[in-house]
Design brief:
By secondary structure, this protein is an alpha+beta fold. The chain has helices at residues 4-18, 30-37, 48-55, 105-109, 144-147, 158-166, 169-172, 176-180, 191-201, 214-233, and strands at 23-28, 59-66, 69-76, 79-86, 91-96, 111-117, 122-127, 133-137, 272-276, 279-283. It binds zinc ion (ZN). Zinc ion binds next to loops.
C-alpha cells in the first residue's frame, strides 16, 4: 500500500503533467458500472453519472495531497470544487498518449477511469485490487477523513500536535505502532514506515504510547520525518504493486533497515515479527525498547 512518500511522488508527477489541462472525455470501466449496479460503489464513491458530469469539462488547477489522499482542485464555469481520492492497495495513475501505451500489462488491463485531456494525453487510473477511491466534493472540509487529520509532517505544528495526541487518554494505552499509523496523530505513516521509524528511534512497536517519554516521542517524530524524506529522495518504495506515474520503480526498499529483514541490520540479532494494528510488524528486541 502506498504511504505518504509514494503518494507525494505521484502528486509531484501529476502536478507537472496535468495542471492547467482540461478534462474533455471520461470513461469508466465495466467493473465500476457493475460494482455500482450491485451497490458496491467500486472506485467511484458517489453516483457514477453525477461524478462524470462534474468532472467533464473541468480544468485541473492544482494537484494536492493530504496524508495518503490526493486531491484535484478543479474549476468549471467559475466554480471551484475538488476530486478527492486515494490509491488503495494498488492504484496508479498513468499519463500516456493512449491506453495501449501503458507498458505494464497488468495495470493496463485493470484501468477503471480514463480522463482524456485537452493536450491529447490520457490520464488513466488503474487499480488491480480495486480498493482505490475517488469522489467529488465542493470544499475539502466536506471530505470527512480530512476533518480529523493531524497537520502534515512538514507543518511547524506537527511535533507539538503529535506529542499531545500520542499521549492523550484515548491513545496512551494503545501500542505506539497503532498510534503513529493513526492519521489523527500524524498523517501518512503506513505499515512499512512505521516499522522503519520505530526501529531507527529504538522504540519497541508494542510499547504503550503513554509509557514513552516526550523526549523519545520527539525522537520518533524526527525519525518519521527522516524516513519520509529519505524515501522521497529514493523515489519511494517499490514492493508489491506501487508504480510511479510513468511506470517507474523506486529504490527505498533497498534502504530498509528492519522491514522484511531476517536479521537486524544493526546488531545481527533475529528480527521478530508480530501482527500489530492488523499488519505484520518487524522489530529487534535488542535495539528497540
Ligand atoms: Zn538489533
Amino acid at each position: 500500500m502506498p504511504e505518504l512518500p509514494e503518494v507525494e511522488l505521484v502528486r509531484r508527477e501529476l502536478s507537472r503533467s496535468v495542471e492547467g489541462r482540461k478534462i474533455e472525455q471520461i470513461e469508466l470501466s465495466d467493473y465500476v458500472y457493475k460494482g455500482h449496479a450491485t451497490g458496491r460503489k467500486t472506485i467511484v464513491k458517489q453516483d457514477v453519472d453525477e461524478f462524470k458530469e462534474m468532472m467533464m469539462g473541468a480544468s485541473i488547477l492544482k494537484i494536492g495531497r493530504r496524508g495518503k489522499y490526493l486531491f484535484f482542485v478543479l474549476e468549471k464555469s467559475d466554480d471551484i470544487f475538488h476530486m478527492v481520492g486515494h490509491l488503495g492497495m494498488s492504484g496508479a495513475f498513468f499519463i500516456t498518449g493512449a491506453l495501449e501505451e501503458i507498458e505494464n500489462l497488468n495495470y493496463r488491463k485493470h484501468w477503471h477511469a480514463l480522463f482524456g485531456l485537452d493536450d491529447g494525453t490520457l490520464l488513466s487510473y488503474c487499480d488491480i485490487r480495486r480498493f482505490g477511491e475517488m469522489s467529488v466534493v465542493k470544499r475539502l472540509n466536506d471530505f470527512a477523513p480530512f476533518s480529523r487529520m493531524a497537520p502534515e509532517y512538514t507543518d511547524p505544528d506537527s511535533l507539538s500536535y503529535f506529542l499531545t495526541k500520542a499521549r492523550n487518554e484515548q491513545n496512551s494505552k494503545k501500542s505506539i505502532k497503532a498510534v503513529i499509523m493513526d492519521s489523527a496523530v500524524i498523517p501518512g505513516v503506513g505499515n512499512i514506515y512505521a516499522s522503519e521509524a520505530l526501529f531507527s528511534a529504538g522504540v519497541l512497536p508494542t510499547k504503550k504510547a503513554g509509557n514513552i517519554s516526550a523526549e523519545r516521542l520527539s525522537r520518533l517524530h524526527e525519525e518519521i520525518v527522516n524516513v519520509f524524506e529519505v524515501s522521497l529522495a529514493s523515489g519511494g518504495s517499490t514492493i508489491s504493486d506501487y508504480r510511479g506515474v510513468s511506470g517507474q520503480s523506486g529504490s527505498m526498499q533497498d534502504r530498509f533497515k528492519i522491514y522484511q529483514k531476517k536479521r537486524c541490520t544493526q546488531c545481527g540479532h533475529d528480527v521478530k515479527t508480530k501482527v500489530i494494528a492488523t499488519r505484520n510488524t518487524f522489530y529487534c528486541t535488542k535495539c528497540q525498547r
